[in-house]
Design goal:
Oligomer: single chain
Radius of gyration: 22 Å
Largest sheet: 2 strands, antiparallel
Number of strands: 2
Strand content: under 5%
Length: 245
């Protein structure tokens, strides 16, 4: 059987190749749109290093009845807030709602760590927190965050809906995987392959999606600039002297 470390080394190489390809794609975008893309390229590049570290057995710390894998933890804690916070940002949600989204996903990730290393009531409570957190994210994304998106340009509102659906769908699969893993359903090889596949789709797939649609985020900026220009013109026409004066 193929060792899990081999799976992770192959995954790390794929991340590295895609990081280069995604960076090249970003350079083809307008400069104003690139700033939205670079963080996602950085996530993919960092995943290459962190997955390789995990493949080499670096950073596995025994805790309680399980272990805390530091490379995976670092990658997840950096990636999930970015992805979910960005979805709320695309909608034009307020900082408060973006903050609630980010805090929720961080609490969910922390709850997974607790459930992985704790038994009994604590482990069950942490598992329940993951499910409750996902439900809260869905309520936010389909409620106040979606309402904010409807006040944006049609293209940006569509971009939000696609972004929301992508993160909720892939993360729903990841939660299902986590539950199966917590109950010991997977062997070591299956666990490694399925996790790397889901993580790869979440990071590389999301990065590619953002890069393909990044210029949509400039729609409202253009409208704001046009409105500001019109306001300045109107103001100037109201104060300039006329021949009659």
């Amino acid at each position: 059987m193929i060792e899990p470390s081999t799976v992770r080394f192959v995954s790390a190489a794929l991340y590295g190749g895609w990081a280069v390809a995604l960076f090249a794609a970003v350079r083809l975008k307008r400069p104003a749109a690139r700033r939205y893309c670079y963080p996602f390229v950085a996530v993919v590049a960092a995943a290459s290093v962190l997955v390789a570290a995990r493949g080499a057995g670096i950073g596995a710390v025994p805790v309680g009845t399980g272990e805390l894998v530091l490379p995976q933890t670092v990658s997840d804690y950096a990636t999930y807030p970015l992805l979910f916070g960005f979805a709320a940002f695309v909608a034009g949600a307020s900082r408060r709602y973006i903050g609630v989204v980010v805090a929720t996903i961080l609490l969910m990730r922390t709850a997974y760590d607790v459930a992985d290393v704790a038994d009994g009531t604590v482990g069950l409570a942490a598992t329940a927190a993951i499910v409750v957190g996902y439900a809260l994210l869905a309520l936010l994304y389909f409620g106040p965050v979606a309402a904010a998106a409807r006040r944006r340009s049609p293209r940006r509102a569509l971009f939000y809906r696609k972004t929301r659906n992508l993160v909720l769908f892939v993360f729903g699969i990841l939660i299902t995987w986590a539950m199966l893993q917590l109950f010991g359903v997977f062997d070591a090889f299956t666990q490694a392959v399925t996790l790397e596949y889901i993580d790869f789709i979440l990071r590389v797939g999301f990065a590619g999606f953002v890069i393909a649609n990044a210029e949509t985020l400039l729609d409202d900026e253009g409208e704001a600039d046009a409105t500001a220009g019109t306001d300045r013109a109107d103001s100037g026409s109201g104060t300039a002297p006329t021949a009659a004066d």
